[in-house]
Amino acid sequence: MKKIISVVGARPNFIKIAPVDKAFRKYDKDILHLICHTGQHFDKKMSDVFFDELEMPRPSFYLGINSGSHAEQTARIMIEFEKVLLNEKPDLILVPGDVNSTMACSLVASKMGIPIGHVESGLRSFDREMPEEINRVVTDVLSDLLFVSEESGLRHLKNEGIDEKKVHFVGNVMIDSLIHYMPKIDQSKIIEYLNNTYKDARIEKKKFVLVTFHRPSNVDSEEGLRELTDFLNRLADLRPVVFPIHPRTRQNMDQYGLLSRLHSQIITTDPIGYIDFLALTKNAELVITDSGGIQEETTFLGVQCITVRNNTERPITVKVGTNQLIGTDLEKVQQVAKEVLSGKQKTGVIPELWDGRTADRIAKICFNFSRGIN
Ligand code: UD1
Ligand code: UDP
Protein backbone atom coordinates (compact mmCIF):
# COMPACT_ATOMS: atom_id res chain seq x y z
CA MET A 1 0.00 0.00 0.00
CA LYS A 2 1.39 3.39 -1.02
CA LYS A 3 0.64 6.49 1.00
CA ILE A 4 -0.15 9.87 -0.56
CA ILE A 5 -0.76 12.99 1.52
CA SER A 6 -2.55 15.97 -0.04
CA VAL A 7 -1.99 19.35 1.53
CA VAL A 8 -4.81 21.88 1.84
CA GLY A 9 -4.69 25.23 3.60
CA ALA A 10 -6.80 27.90 1.96
CA ARG A 11 -10.28 28.06 0.44
CA PRO A 12 -9.35 27.30 -3.19
CA ASN A 13 -7.28 24.28 -2.09
CA PHE A 14 -10.31 22.45 -0.72
CA ILE A 15 -12.14 22.77 -4.03
CA LYS A 16 -9.08 21.46 -5.91
CA ILE A 17 -8.36 18.45 -3.67
CA ALA A 18 -11.97 17.27 -3.19
CA PRO A 19 -12.20 15.68 -6.67
CA VAL A 20 -8.70 14.23 -6.33
CA ASP A 21 -9.73 12.52 -3.09
CA LYS A 22 -12.81 11.07 -4.83
CA ALA A 23 -10.65 9.84 -7.73
CA PHE A 24 -8.26 8.02 -5.37
CA ARG A 25 -11.16 6.01 -3.95
CA LYS A 26 -10.94 3.83 -7.08
CA TYR A 27 -7.40 2.84 -6.06
CA ASP A 28 -8.15 2.17 -2.40
CA LYS A 29 -6.55 -1.29 -2.47
CA ASP A 30 -3.25 0.22 -3.56
CA ILE A 31 -3.25 3.81 -2.33
CA LEU A 32 -4.00 5.31 1.06
CA HIS A 33 -4.88 8.95 0.44
CA LEU A 34 -4.76 11.24 3.48
CA ILE A 35 -5.41 14.96 3.84
CA CYS A 36 -3.28 17.39 5.81
CA HIS A 37 -4.95 20.75 6.57
CA THR A 38 -2.45 23.43 7.56
CA GLY A 39 -5.13 25.68 9.07
CA GLN A 40 -4.06 28.70 7.00
CA HIS A 41 -7.80 29.35 6.59
CA PHE A 42 -9.68 28.44 9.71
CA ASP A 43 -13.09 30.16 9.88
CA LYS A 44 -15.96 27.73 9.41
CA LYS A 45 -17.09 29.69 6.35
CA MET A 46 -13.59 29.59 4.82
CA SER A 47 -12.87 25.95 5.64
CA ASP A 48 -15.33 23.50 7.28
CA VAL A 49 -18.16 24.36 4.90
CA PHE A 50 -16.08 23.07 2.00
CA PHE A 51 -15.33 19.74 3.70
CA ASP A 52 -19.05 19.28 4.27
CA GLU A 53 -20.33 20.41 0.90
CA LEU A 54 -17.59 18.79 -1.17
CA GLU A 55 -17.93 15.54 0.83
CA MET A 56 -14.29 15.37 1.81
CA PRO A 57 -13.09 13.22 4.70
CA ARG A 58 -11.93 15.18 7.75
CA PRO A 59 -8.20 15.87 7.57
CA SER A 60 -6.00 13.20 9.13
CA PHE A 61 -3.60 15.98 10.19
CA TYR A 62 -4.52 19.51 11.23
CA LEU A 63 -1.57 21.84 11.77
CA GLY A 64 -3.52 24.78 13.27
CA ILE A 65 -1.25 27.40 11.70
CA ASN A 66 -3.63 30.37 11.43
CA SER A 67 -2.62 33.81 10.09
CA GLY A 68 0.67 35.66 10.32
CA SER A 69 3.23 37.44 8.18
CA HIS A 70 4.44 35.49 5.18
CA ALA A 71 7.61 34.36 6.93
CA GLU A 72 5.82 33.44 10.16
CA GLN A 73 3.06 31.53 8.41
CA THR A 74 5.42 29.72 6.04
CA ALA A 75 7.85 28.84 8.83
CA ARG A 76 5.15 27.52 11.16
CA ILE A 77 3.73 25.35 8.40
CA MET A 78 7.19 23.97 7.65
CA ILE A 79 7.92 23.08 11.27
CA GLU A 80 4.61 21.29 11.74
CA PHE A 81 4.54 19.59 8.35
CA GLU A 82 8.02 18.16 8.86
CA LYS A 83 6.69 16.31 11.93
CA VAL A 84 3.88 14.81 9.86
CA LEU A 85 6.28 13.64 7.17
CA LEU A 86 8.71 12.17 9.72
CA ASN A 87 5.90 10.14 11.28
CA GLU A 88 4.04 9.18 8.15
CA LYS A 89 6.78 8.73 5.55
CA PRO A 90 4.45 9.12 2.56
CA ASP A 91 5.44 7.98 -0.92
CA LEU A 92 4.19 11.20 -2.51
CA ILE A 93 2.67 14.50 -1.44
CA LEU A 94 0.24 16.53 -3.51
CA VAL A 95 0.11 20.31 -3.22
CA PRO A 96 -2.54 22.35 -5.05
CA GLY A 97 -2.44 25.94 -6.27
CA ASP A 98 -0.22 28.78 -5.13
CA VAL A 99 -0.86 29.67 -1.50
CA ASN A 100 1.72 29.78 1.28
CA SER A 101 0.78 26.26 2.40
CA THR A 102 1.60 24.98 -1.09
CA MET A 103 5.14 26.32 -1.09
CA ALA A 104 5.91 25.66 2.57
CA CYS A 105 5.01 21.97 2.33
CA SER A 106 6.86 21.55 -0.96
CA LEU A 107 10.05 22.90 0.60
CA VAL A 108 9.81 20.48 3.51
CA ALA A 109 9.09 17.42 1.36
CA SER A 110 11.84 18.18 -1.13
CA LYS A 111 14.50 18.39 1.60
CA MET A 112 13.32 15.01 2.89
CA GLY A 113 13.49 13.42 -0.55
CA ILE A 114 9.73 12.88 -0.72
CA PRO A 115 8.32 13.30 -4.26
CA ILE A 116 5.90 16.17 -4.86
CA GLY A 117 2.97 16.47 -7.25
CA HIS A 118 1.86 20.02 -7.99
CA VAL A 119 -1.79 20.34 -8.96
CA GLU A 120 -2.23 23.47 -11.11
CA SER A 121 1.35 23.79 -12.20
CA GLY A 122 2.93 26.18 -14.70
CA LEU A 123 0.64 29.18 -14.19
CA ARG A 124 2.54 32.48 -14.23
CA SER A 125 1.48 36.11 -13.78
CA PHE A 126 5.11 37.25 -14.12
CA ASP A 127 4.37 39.64 -11.27
CA ARG A 128 6.70 38.95 -8.33
CA GLU A 129 4.79 41.47 -6.21
CA MET A 130 2.16 38.77 -5.90
CA PRO A 131 3.14 36.32 -3.14
CA GLU A 132 1.40 33.62 -5.17
CA GLU A 133 3.84 34.02 -8.05
CA ILE A 134 6.78 33.23 -5.79
CA ASN A 135 4.89 30.25 -4.40
CA ARG A 136 4.21 28.97 -7.93
CA VAL A 137 7.79 29.26 -9.16
CA VAL A 138 9.30 27.63 -6.07
CA THR A 139 6.77 24.79 -6.00
CA ASP A 140 7.22 24.00 -9.68
CA VAL A 141 10.98 23.87 -9.45
CA LEU A 142 10.74 21.36 -6.60
CA SER A 143 8.01 19.15 -8.04
CA ASP A 144 8.34 15.71 -9.59
CA LEU A 145 4.87 15.58 -11.14
CA LEU A 146 3.59 18.82 -12.63
CA PHE A 147 -0.13 18.75 -13.40
CA VAL A 148 -0.99 21.51 -15.84
CA SER A 149 -4.46 23.03 -16.23
CA GLU A 150 -4.08 25.15 -19.37
CA GLU A 151 -1.77 25.45 -22.37
CA SER A 152 0.14 28.49 -21.06
CA GLY A 153 1.43 26.30 -18.24
CA LEU A 154 3.08 23.91 -20.71
CA ARG A 155 4.84 26.82 -22.37
CA HIS A 156 6.10 28.34 -19.14
CA LEU A 157 7.47 25.07 -17.78
CA LYS A 158 9.26 24.39 -21.05
CA ASN A 159 10.76 27.90 -21.03
CA GLU A 160 11.95 27.34 -17.46
CA GLY A 161 13.76 24.18 -18.50
CA ILE A 162 11.60 21.73 -16.54
CA ASP A 163 12.06 18.17 -17.79
CA GLU A 164 9.02 17.52 -19.98
CA LYS A 165 8.75 13.95 -18.69
CA LYS A 166 7.56 15.38 -15.38
CA VAL A 167 4.87 17.53 -16.99
CA HIS A 168 1.30 16.25 -17.47
CA PHE A 169 -1.42 18.29 -19.18
CA VAL A 170 -4.47 17.05 -17.29
CA GLY A 171 -7.00 19.92 -17.24
CA ASN A 172 -8.61 21.78 -14.39
CA VAL A 173 -9.61 20.15 -11.10
CA MET A 174 -11.75 23.15 -10.05
CA ILE A 175 -13.96 22.39 -13.02
CA ASP A 176 -14.24 18.76 -11.85
CA SER A 177 -15.86 20.04 -8.65
CA LEU A 178 -18.12 22.38 -10.59
CA ILE A 179 -19.34 19.64 -12.94
CA HIS A 180 -19.77 17.12 -10.13
CA TYR A 181 -21.89 19.49 -8.03
CA MET A 182 -23.88 21.10 -10.88
CA PRO A 183 -27.14 19.30 -9.97
CA LYS A 184 -26.89 20.67 -6.41
CA ILE A 185 -25.87 24.11 -7.67
CA ASP A 186 -28.98 24.17 -9.84
CA GLN A 187 -31.14 23.44 -6.79
CA SER A 188 -29.66 26.19 -4.63
CA LYS A 189 -32.16 28.58 -3.04
CA ILE A 190 -29.59 31.31 -2.42
CA ILE A 191 -31.38 33.97 -4.47
CA GLU A 192 -34.62 33.46 -2.56
CA TYR A 193 -32.66 33.40 0.70
CA LEU A 194 -30.91 36.70 -0.03
CA ASN A 195 -34.17 38.36 -1.09
CA ASN A 196 -35.89 37.20 2.10
CA THR A 197 -33.01 38.25 4.31
CA TYR A 198 -31.95 41.57 2.79
CA LYS A 199 -35.13 43.56 2.19
CA ASP A 200 -33.51 46.68 0.70
CA ALA A 201 -32.20 45.05 -2.46
CA ARG A 202 -33.97 42.58 -4.71
CA ILE A 203 -32.05 40.33 -7.06
CA GLU A 204 -33.30 38.31 -9.99
CA LYS A 205 -31.53 35.76 -12.18
CA LYS A 206 -29.26 37.46 -14.74
CA LYS A 207 -30.04 40.89 -13.33
CA PHE A 208 -27.37 41.37 -10.69
CA VAL A 209 -23.62 41.72 -10.44
CA LEU A 210 -21.56 39.40 -8.22
CA VAL A 211 -18.39 40.95 -6.85
CA THR A 212 -15.41 39.53 -4.91
CA PHE A 213 -12.15 41.24 -3.94
CA HIS A 214 -9.33 39.95 -1.77
CA ARG A 215 -5.97 40.64 -3.44
CA PRO A 216 -3.70 42.67 -1.14
CA SER A 217 -3.02 45.02 -4.10
CA ASN A 218 -6.75 45.88 -4.22
CA VAL A 219 -7.83 45.76 -0.60
CA ASP A 220 -4.90 46.50 1.70
CA SER A 221 -4.41 50.25 1.27
CA GLU A 222 -6.97 52.67 2.69
CA GLU A 223 -6.95 54.82 -0.44
CA GLY A 224 -7.45 51.84 -2.75
CA LEU A 225 -10.27 50.48 -0.64
CA ARG A 226 -12.02 53.88 -0.56
CA GLU A 227 -11.87 54.02 -4.35
CA LEU A 228 -13.19 50.47 -4.53
CA THR A 229 -16.10 51.39 -2.23
CA ASP A 230 -16.98 54.39 -4.43
CA PHE A 231 -16.78 52.17 -7.50
CA LEU A 232 -19.15 49.59 -5.96
CA ASN A 233 -21.59 52.35 -5.07
CA ARG A 234 -21.59 53.62 -8.67
CA LEU A 235 -22.04 50.05 -9.90
CA ALA A 236 -25.07 49.62 -7.62
CA ASP A 237 -26.77 52.49 -9.49
CA LEU A 238 -26.75 50.19 -12.54
CA ARG A 239 -27.70 46.85 -10.98
CA PRO A 240 -28.09 45.31 -7.52
CA VAL A 241 -24.73 43.94 -6.37
CA VAL A 242 -23.98 40.85 -4.28
CA PHE A 243 -20.68 41.18 -2.42
CA PRO A 244 -19.57 38.19 -0.30
CA ILE A 245 -16.70 39.66 1.68
CA HIS A 246 -13.40 37.81 2.19
CA PRO A 247 -12.07 38.10 5.78
CA ARG A 248 -9.03 40.12 4.64
CA THR A 249 -11.30 42.62 2.89
CA ARG A 250 -13.80 42.78 5.75
CA GLN A 251 -11.07 43.45 8.31
CA ASN A 252 -9.72 46.33 6.23
CA MET A 253 -13.12 47.83 5.34
CA ASP A 254 -14.04 47.68 8.98
CA GLN A 255 -10.80 49.33 10.06
CA TYR A 256 -11.27 52.21 7.59
CA GLY A 257 -15.00 52.61 8.41
CA LEU A 258 -16.10 51.74 4.87
CA LEU A 259 -18.70 49.02 5.43
CA SER A 260 -21.36 51.51 6.52
CA ARG A 261 -20.74 53.64 3.43
CA LEU A 262 -21.92 50.95 1.00
CA HIS A 263 -25.02 51.66 -1.16
CA SER A 264 -28.33 50.09 -0.07
CA GLN A 265 -28.44 48.09 -3.31
CA ILE A 266 -25.30 46.18 -2.30
CA ILE A 267 -25.99 42.94 -0.46
CA THR A 268 -22.92 42.25 1.66
CA THR A 269 -22.48 38.81 3.15
CA ASP A 270 -19.86 36.68 4.84
CA PRO A 271 -18.03 34.22 2.59
CA ILE A 272 -20.69 32.01 1.02
CA GLY A 273 -20.61 28.20 0.87
CA TYR A 274 -19.46 26.55 -2.34
CA ILE A 275 -22.82 25.41 -3.74
CA ASP A 276 -24.57 28.72 -3.12
CA PHE A 277 -21.60 30.75 -4.34
CA LEU A 278 -21.49 28.85 -7.62
CA ALA A 279 -25.26 29.25 -7.97
CA LEU A 280 -24.79 33.01 -7.66
CA THR A 281 -21.94 32.89 -10.19
CA LYS A 282 -24.01 30.91 -12.66
CA ASN A 283 -26.98 33.26 -12.36
CA ALA A 284 -25.08 36.56 -12.34
CA GLU A 285 -25.31 38.88 -15.32
CA LEU A 286 -21.70 39.88 -14.66
CA VAL A 287 -18.99 38.92 -12.16
CA ILE A 288 -16.33 41.44 -11.18
CA THR A 289 -13.41 39.92 -9.29
CA ASP A 290 -9.72 39.66 -8.56
CA SER A 291 -9.95 35.94 -7.72
CA GLY A 292 -8.01 33.27 -9.58
CA GLY A 293 -10.57 30.48 -9.42
CA ILE A 294 -13.53 32.67 -10.29
CA GLN A 295 -11.95 33.64 -13.62
CA GLU A 296 -11.99 29.93 -14.48
CA GLU A 297 -15.45 29.13 -13.14
CA THR A 298 -17.04 32.01 -15.10
CA THR A 299 -15.30 30.87 -18.27
CA PHE A 300 -16.63 27.35 -17.80
CA LEU A 301 -20.14 28.66 -17.09
CA GLY A 302 -20.05 31.17 -19.97
CA VAL A 303 -20.72 34.02 -17.52
CA GLN A 304 -19.31 37.49 -18.22
CA CYS A 305 -16.31 38.25 -16.02
CA ILE A 306 -14.24 41.38 -15.50
CA THR A 307 -10.93 40.83 -13.73
CA VAL A 308 -9.66 43.84 -11.82
CA ARG A 309 -5.95 43.10 -12.03
CA ASN A 310 -3.07 44.11 -14.29
CA ASN A 311 -2.19 40.53 -15.14
CA THR A 312 -3.57 37.04 -14.94
CA GLU A 313 -1.85 33.69 -14.51
CA ARG A 314 -4.91 32.16 -16.21
CA PRO A 315 -4.70 33.70 -19.70
CA ILE A 316 -6.78 30.95 -21.31
CA THR A 317 -9.85 32.54 -19.68
CA VAL A 318 -9.15 35.72 -21.65
CA LYS A 319 -7.95 34.02 -24.82
CA VAL A 320 -10.91 31.67 -25.30
CA GLY A 321 -13.22 32.38 -22.36
CA THR A 322 -15.56 35.11 -21.16
CA ASN A 323 -13.00 36.88 -18.98
CA GLN A 324 -11.85 40.45 -19.67
CA LEU A 325 -8.65 41.58 -17.99
CA ILE A 326 -9.23 45.29 -17.50
CA GLY A 327 -6.56 46.44 -15.03
CA THR A 328 -7.06 48.33 -11.80
CA ASP A 329 -8.26 51.68 -13.17
CA LEU A 330 -11.78 51.65 -11.74
CA GLU A 331 -13.08 54.25 -14.21
CA LYS A 332 -12.16 51.85 -16.99
CA VAL A 333 -13.74 48.94 -15.11
CA GLN A 334 -16.93 50.98 -14.70
CA GLN A 335 -17.02 51.73 -18.40
CA VAL A 336 -16.55 48.08 -19.42
CA ALA A 337 -19.13 46.96 -16.84
CA LYS A 338 -21.64 49.41 -18.34
CA GLU A 339 -20.95 48.03 -21.80
CA VAL A 340 -21.42 44.43 -20.68
CA LEU A 341 -24.64 45.31 -18.85
CA SER A 342 -25.98 47.02 -21.94
CA GLY A 343 -25.45 43.85 -23.97
CA LYS A 344 -21.88 44.02 -25.30
CA GLN A 345 -20.93 40.54 -24.15
CA LYS A 346 -17.83 38.46 -24.78
CA THR A 347 -18.51 35.01 -26.18
CA GLY A 348 -16.36 32.14 -25.03
CA VAL A 349 -15.65 28.42 -25.29
CA ILE A 350 -14.59 25.91 -22.66
CA PRO A 351 -10.82 25.33 -22.58
CA GLU A 352 -9.28 22.00 -23.56
CA LEU A 353 -9.59 19.18 -20.99
CA TRP A 354 -11.85 21.16 -18.62
CA ASP A 355 -14.13 18.16 -18.82
CA GLY A 356 -14.69 16.94 -15.27
CA ARG A 357 -12.12 14.11 -15.55
CA THR A 358 -8.94 15.89 -14.52
CA ALA A 359 -8.75 14.28 -11.07
CA ASP A 360 -9.11 10.81 -12.65
CA ARG A 361 -6.08 11.58 -14.82
CA ILE A 362 -4.12 12.82 -11.82
CA ALA A 363 -4.98 9.74 -9.75
CA LYS A 364 -3.93 7.40 -12.56
CA ILE A 365 -0.61 9.20 -13.04
CA CYS A 366 0.04 9.11 -9.28
CA PHE A 367 -0.82 5.41 -9.16
CA ASN A 368 1.62 4.66 -11.98
CA PHE A 369 4.26 6.88 -10.41
CA SER A 370 3.93 5.11 -7.07
CA ARG A 371 4.51 1.78 -8.83
CA GLY A 372 7.55 3.14 -10.62
CA ILE A 373 5.86 3.39 -14.02
CA ASN A 374 6.16 6.84 -15.54
C1 UD1 B 1 -4.78 33.44 0.75
C2 UD1 B 1 -3.73 33.19 -0.33
C3 UD1 B 1 -4.24 33.69 -1.67
C4 UD1 B 1 -5.60 33.09 -2.01
C5 UD1 B 1 -6.57 33.33 -0.86
C6 UD1 B 1 -7.86 32.59 -1.14
C7 UD1 B 1 -1.35 33.30 0.34
C8 UD1 B 1 -0.14 34.14 0.34
N1 UD1 B 1 -2.49 33.90 -0.03
O1 UD1 B 1 -4.95 34.84 0.87
O2 UD1 B 1 -3.33 33.31 -2.69
O3 UD1 B 1 -6.07 33.71 -3.17
O4 UD1 B 1 -6.01 32.82 0.37
O5 UD1 B 1 -8.92 33.06 -0.41
O6 UD1 B 1 -1.27 32.15 0.65
N2 UD1 B 1 -8.59 35.31 7.82
C9 UD1 B 1 -9.61 35.05 8.69
N3 UD1 B 1 -10.19 33.82 8.65
C10 UD1 B 1 -9.80 32.84 7.80
C11 UD1 B 1 -8.75 33.11 6.92
C12 UD1 B 1 -8.15 34.36 6.93
O7 UD1 B 1 -10.00 35.90 9.48
O8 UD1 B 1 -10.37 31.74 7.82
C13 UD1 B 1 -7.95 36.63 7.84
C14 UD1 B 1 -6.66 36.55 8.63
O9 UD1 B 1 -6.78 37.31 9.78
C15 UD1 B 1 -5.60 37.13 7.75
C16 UD1 B 1 -6.30 37.54 6.47
O10 UD1 B 1 -7.63 37.04 6.53
O11 UD1 B 1 -4.98 38.24 8.33
C17 UD1 B 1 -5.59 36.96 5.27
O12 UD1 B 1 -5.43 35.56 5.35
P1 UD1 B 1 -4.21 34.80 4.62
O13 UD1 B 1 -4.42 33.34 4.62
O14 UD1 B 1 -2.91 35.30 5.13
O15 UD1 B 1 -4.29 35.34 3.14
P2 UD1 B 1 -5.52 35.49 2.16
O16 UD1 B 1 -5.70 36.92 1.87
O17 UD1 B 1 -6.68 34.73 2.70
N1 UDP C 1 -15.81 30.82 -3.23
C1 UDP C 1 -16.85 30.44 -2.40
N2 UDP C 1 -17.47 31.39 -1.66
C2 UDP C 1 -17.14 32.72 -1.71
C3 UDP C 1 -16.09 33.08 -2.57
C4 UDP C 1 -15.43 32.11 -3.30
O1 UDP C 1 -17.20 29.26 -2.33
O2 UDP C 1 -17.76 33.52 -1.00
C5 UDP C 1 -15.10 29.76 -3.99
C6 UDP C 1 -15.14 29.93 -5.50
O3 UDP C 1 -15.38 28.66 -6.05
C7 UDP C 1 -13.74 30.39 -5.84
C8 UDP C 1 -12.91 29.73 -4.77
O4 UDP C 1 -13.74 29.78 -3.62
O5 UDP C 1 -13.31 29.97 -7.10
C9 UDP C 1 -11.56 30.36 -4.54
O6 UDP C 1 -11.70 31.49 -3.82
P1 UDP C 1 -10.75 32.73 -3.72
O7 UDP C 1 -11.24 33.74 -4.67
O8 UDP C 1 -10.73 33.05 -2.28
O9 UDP C 1 -9.26 32.23 -4.08
P2 UDP C 1 -8.33 32.33 -5.37
O10 UDP C 1 -8.89 31.44 -6.41
O11 UDP C 1 -8.25 33.77 -5.79
O12 UDP C 1 -7.00 31.87 -4.87
3D structure, described in words:
By secondary structure, this protein is of the alpha/beta class. The protein folds into two domains: 2-171 and 354-370, 3-Layer(aba) Sandwich (Rossmann fold), CATH 3.40.50; 182-341, Rossmann fold (3-Layer(aba) Sandwich). The protein is built from 17 helices and 13 strands. The chain has helices spanning 11-24, 48-53, 70-88, 100-111, 131-142, 151-159, 173-180, 182-187, 190-197, 216-219, 222-238, 247-255, 274-283, 293-301, 316-319, 330-341, 358-370; strands at residues 2-8, 31-37, 61-62, 92-96, 116-121, 145-148, 167-169, 209-212, 241-244, 266-269, 286-289, 305-307, 323-325. The chain has a seven-stranded parallel β-sheet with strand order 3-2-1-4-5-6-7, sandwiched between helices. β6, α6 (151-159) and β7 (167-169) form a beta-alpha-beta unit. The longest helix is centred in the first third of the chain and has 19 residues, at 70-88. It is globular. The protein starts with a strand and ends with a helix. The model has no long low-confidence stretch (mean pLDDT 97). The protein binds uridine-diphosphate-N-acetylglucosamine and uridine-5'-diphosphate. Uridine-diphosphate-N-acetylglucosamine binds at residues 10-12, 40-43, 46, 67, 98-100, 131-132, 214, 246-248.
